[in-house]
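Lab notebook, bench 4. We co-purified these components, and the gel suggests they stay together. Before we commit to crystallization screens, I want a quick structural picture of the whole thing.
Request: model the full complex, all chains together.
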Amino acid sequence: MESSKTKLKVRSFNMFYGDFQALRDVTVDIPIHRITSIIGPSGCGKSTFLRSFNRMNGLIPGTRVEGQMLLDDQDLYDIDVVELRKRVGMVFQRPNPFPKTIFDNVAYGPRSHGLRDRARLSEIVEHSLKQAALWDEVKDNLDKSGLALSGGQQQRLCIARALAVDPDVILMDEPASALDPIATLRIEELVQTLKESYTIVIVTHNMQQAARASDHTIFFNMAEDRAGYMVEYGLTKEIFTNPKHKLTEDYITGRFG
Amino acid sequence: MSGAQVTSSVAEIQNKSVVAGMAVGSVARRKLSQRIAFGFTWLAGFLAVAALVWIVGYVVVQGVQVINLEFLTTRPAGGVSGEGGMSTTIVTTLYLVVLTIVIATPLGVGAAIFLVEYAGEVQRESRLMAYLIKIARIGVEVLAGVPSIIFGLFGFALFVVALELGFSLLSAGLSGACLILPVIIRTSEEALLAVPRSYREGSLALGATKWQTTVGVVLPAAMPGIITGVVLSVGRIIAETAIFWVTLGGSYRLPTSISHAGRSMALHVYMLASETRAFDKAMGTAAILIVTIVVLNLIINYTSRRLAARSMGRGR
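Here is the predicted assembly.
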């Protein structure tokens, strides 16, 4: 897989909700400073897989995992969950800014990790909002509520909020699915600029988005017993032009899903 | 035109008119029943408002005759003639409200936070805890429906007698706190449950701990609902009589410490009306009491709407 280094390694990963197996035997490498997209039909476990990287599934009672997920060769189920989520940030499907000011939204993460210095916080807020391409639109209104922004702006605010704790990896769960096409495009452009400094894993329903905006693609499918499994992964251009599996070809040409 | 055709078309016409006639009849009937229903709901609404206006109006009109600056600023003088004003009862009511709220709010909000945010995981860890939490939930439900005099008797037995606090602001405040605790717990629980899960997830995903999430995001978002519950409880404390009759005593002197007895406005109304000839002064005090409660309700409406608007981002 190119010459790039691996950021996240997944080895024979299984996940269960009680008796139900949600993910089966996933083994994949996610390269550093690249955009890796996860595609697949509804219910194939791609969001569950994504949420395993910051252990958000642990919020649901009765979850159990087998196998390994490694962040920089360290088992991420051995890392303290607070520390892990500082290193692996997340942007959700629906923009979910807190009912706080724009400044307080972005400063929330660093404050939670104990930063109190006002000047340093201002610096981080400005830097994060610039990285998220939102600074110019909000710099005069930092004390306005985050909920007063448009949907696309709210999502960029959420990205800025995630960037403010300086993570290595950013997980994105269909970050543009609730947005209009123009806002979607802005998010995609933004993600392209972010990959220089971050490793990005993005779940998407939108095949064109995966094709034009990601370097690597993982294709998931749902087995007979509704467990999600990985069909194939590789460079996006190969997956989309020359898939190894018939199933992948059928999916990307829109024959199912 | 043949005979058969004629008869069939005649039949058709008759058919249509029958259908049309039925339709007209049923529309008229449906409209009539709608009108009756509207009339009834309108009447019910009118009667409810009329009763309210009548009571408030009667008390205020009767009471206003004795209300003047002197009535508000002199203390009751006691005796069967009910001499004096009501000044100390206003201050005592204020003390009582502050004391009760200070005791009950942290406990009530804390209990609600536990039940909404933490009970789930604790329940899964231990059978015994699951059982205790279930009892606590049932307890809150039951306590919400217990008559206030029962809380009064409980407060009398425990605080006044057993703990030897006597008739005092402290006994009354603790008993009052027991009375409003279920109200605060339930309104706070509802407010916390109404906070979207996405706020909690967003905070946890940033590496905030569960407690940081609760304090930093969930509580502020639930604050309008919690404040509404607290202010409703303030109204309850101002209005309650029986519970304070058996815990606060009835002294019309101004309490200067929490171990002193006292007399709230509602208690003053009750005592004037039942033990003196000064029914007009009971009405005067009642008028002040009612106006206080009405103003309080207006304040709740205004502030909770303001707070809700601000948290939705429409403020500023």
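Chain B has a mean pLDDT of 86. Worth comparing against the SEC data before the next meeting. Residues 3-64 of chain B form the longest helix (62 residues).
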